[in-house]
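Consider this:
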Amino acid sequence: MFLSWRLLGSEATGATGTGMAGPDFAVYRDGERIATVTDSTDHVDAEGSATAEYAVAPIVNGIELEASAATSAWADGYHDLPLQKPADGVTPAGEAFTYSANDASVADVDGDGAYEFQVKWDPSNSKDVSQKGYTGTVYLDTYELDGTLLNRIDLGVNIRAGAHYTQFMTYDFDGDGRAETMLKTAPGTKSVAYDSDGTVAAEAFITMPEADVEAGYSHDDDYRMSADDYRDHLVQMFQGWSEHPEVVSGNWPATLEEAFGIPVVHEYPLSEAGAEELVDHFIDVYAPSRSSRNDLTTFEGFIVDGPEYLTVFDGETGQELQTIPYKPGRGDDGLLWGDYAMSRIEPGNRVDRFLAGVAYLDGERPSAVFARGYYTRTTMVAYDWDGEALSERFFVDSGHAPMSNPFNDSPHGVDGTDPEYGGITTQGFHSLSAADVDGDGKHEIVYGAATIDDDGTVLYSSYDVLPAGSAAPGSLARLGHGDAMHVTDIDPSRPGLEIWTVHEGGAWAPYGSVMRDAATGEVLFGAYSGRDTGRGMIGDVRADVAGTEVWASMPGGTDASGLLSTGGDILSAATPGTNMSIRWSADLTTQIVNGSGNATPTIDDWTRGTLLAAEGTRTNNGTKGTPSLVADVLGDWREELLVRTADSTALRIFTSTEDTGHKLTTLMHDPQYRAEVARQNTTYNQPSYTSYHLASDMDFAKVPVLTTPSAPIGPKFKDRPGTDHDEVQIPHDPAFRYYVDGELAEKGKSAGEGEVTVVAVPVAWSSTADGADAEWTVVFDD
């Protein structure tokens, strides 16, 4: 039998040669103490049985404290959390769809000290933001570990399904011990709370802003476009062409004919008939001439109109706490965002690229971060939640990338109009990270190749010179957009954190993959590829090599970078996978989660081979092959693998059973890691990283110690020989509890007799200062 448990940040007191200092642990089987564990937080019981019940009690300063609740072994070597799959559906186009469990997150939503589990339901017709077609509704469920459904958020028909559209941030934002959920909503979004027997306890739509209600918007609205709706939308857009601010200012052609490169034959403002004629030309002639893939006659399923909101929900009940307009709104269908400018005409694409995260921007409390756009206009808002209302901490907005012709231009890599933020356009990725990159105790937002400081200013935006063989050798260019990003202490021989990224700019990007200093954005090493370098990963996969290895590959795994050291040296031509990493092994090395589509997910070690085949389960998100979640949610410091069963009837949780000799604080008590776990469901799921170097060669002294050391106040002893009035006086010290002969004693006087030992035991988040006395013994005279 394998048993593991947590070392909490409130318990760890320092570092040792193999881990963290803190309590020893007494292990009980069926009420009998069978072991005392000092060097880890796991135990292998060779004599255990499947029916045995185990409990663990911390031992501090020789005092055994309260034991955990008893638990028994998982019967099948994993735990299945039962799920309640939504009913199948049919789109307005008559296409049937089903549901599968997708991304997951964890948080304590009810304040009981245990994690609840959130699961996003994705319809089988979920779309990338560049893909046409209707999608089913997205649902977000919250479950207890035993499968009890607490609530379901129904996002409604006006939120399209797909990785780019919905990121859910679940975190205790106001510090009351219960997590809230924040995500993008729209008219039609509602929440449903359930009783313990599964019946509906409450159901309510979100509260639409009064201005929207007065404007006639309602929860019955359906803004999904059919192909005919899109054509009508274009007619209205074209009729308003001459009044568009960019046209009025002279930045865009005065007529649509000039924009399309044809003779001007209509008077402006356009009549409805004139607009219809130009729409026909645009759809049937101009768009296909730009690319054979531009079939706008079948453009349907997108939502480019109607209100957009950000809603805060109670994590336990699903009750709406506040709804505000989403900032910034889309403004238009993507015309200003460059969605019509390039050869691929893709309305509703760049405008609907969303990201989200959690960050400790003041170093003390978590803020929610919601972002829109990264190819052209790039925006980000940070909010604080005080339990009653959202307050905006900062707003970042590059402004739109100027274009001379919104139907034929190259807006990528062009500065936005804002003088402060204009240089961050095209630098964002399909994810973001929160990390203290400059060592000031506050998180910054690493937004791909640009980083926003904790106060909302630009810390840096990374550029470099295009090399020989590129599109413009010698020119200064953005590092630019990419798909994969990893922020942690990759190279422990250097101060601070590093960033490993891959970039898709091809011949217009200085690097296909690159390592940078996280504090300055300075390039440490990198390689030009000239192609879309689509995948990248990091991990300590070679314990014989110092630091964390990095690698990257082109689409399809071709032309890989090779496995690289922290200095950029090639260790081998072959590379591990790039879907997701996991800390699974007892030796602190990194493993890789492989498997996509209908393949069985596996956990693979670069030197030892496959360590786990998660039979009967599947990963998510197509070729990305990402699990629902990888995080330290149970047991010791190692990460669990959370994947859906093949039929999505359960979320299956796997945990490592390798016996380790390392005692490490739960990763979830590292603020960067905890924020990264909340962020993991964002768009292209990236691993979660600690603020310190977590690897086989780690220096445990670099792990933050969260307890505060102090010297306990000593008790007083009054010996009155020849009487029955000997006394032990227990002091009041808020950082310690006192035990007299092993029994908890309250402040004040207690009788003493014979030999008496008093021990001070620190409370949570406190520790005994080095060299301080914590035990006193006295012998009272008769």
Observations:
- The radius of gyration is 29 Å.
- The longest strand covers residues 99-107.
- Residues 710-779 form one domain.
